[in-house]
Amino acid sequence: MKIELIAVGTRAPDWVTAGFAEYQKRMPRECELTLNEVSVAKRKSNTSVAQLKEMEGAQMLDRIKPRSHVVALDVKGKGWSTEQLADKLKRWMSEAPSVSLLVGGPDGLSEGCLARADESWSLSALTFPHFLVRVILAEQLYRAVSIINNHPYHRV
Fold it and tell me: How does pLDDT run across 7-52, given as a tens digit for each residue?
């Protein structure tokens, strides 16, 4: 199964790129993790936040592979424990050829992205910088795979 993180933003700080890459390389072959970056919409004085989100959302929706299970990262989504994520990952591995995780930019996800999502996931009630979310997601996916494979990385 392929897990694709589709995220708004193309100029991540070096520490984000390095952190994501570290967990990306740890993922097993059967759970390949890739990053697909979408450009932040150009801000103009006559463009509303909703229009900006829709422009970014259109790019994101174009990158979702057919038959992919889509998970929107959204503050209004459901919170999952690491063990629940491992259970979901196991299910996704058996049911879907790919999973697309959608991470919006500074203004969040478009209504179109939220409507397309099969599930909405909230990492926390806290607000995180959208670049930091990439590292958190990669680490949590690796941790979930570790649980599935009985690897000692995850300790309670």
Answer: 999 999 999 999 999 999 999 999 999 999 999 998 888 889 899 9
Beta bridge partners of 70: 100
- 3-state secondary structure at position 94: helix
Cα of first residue to Cα of last residue in the chain, in angstroms, is 27
Q: Is 86 helix (H, G, I), strand (E, B) or coil?
A: helix
Architecture of domain 2-148: 3-Layer(aba) Sandwich (3.40)
Which pTM does this prediction carry? 0.93
**Tens-digit pLDDT profile for residues 84-135:** 999 999 999 999 999 999 999 888 999 999 999 999 999 999 988 989 999 9
The residue among 5, 112, 126, 118 whose CA lies nearest residue 51 is 112
66 — phi, psi (to 5°)? -55, 145
Instruction: For residues 143 and 66, give the distance between their C-alpha atoms in angstroms, rounded to a whole number.
Output: 27
Question: Residue 155, exposed/middle/buried by CB under 10 A (0-12, 13-18, 19+)?
Answer: exposed
Looking at residue 50, its amino acid is A
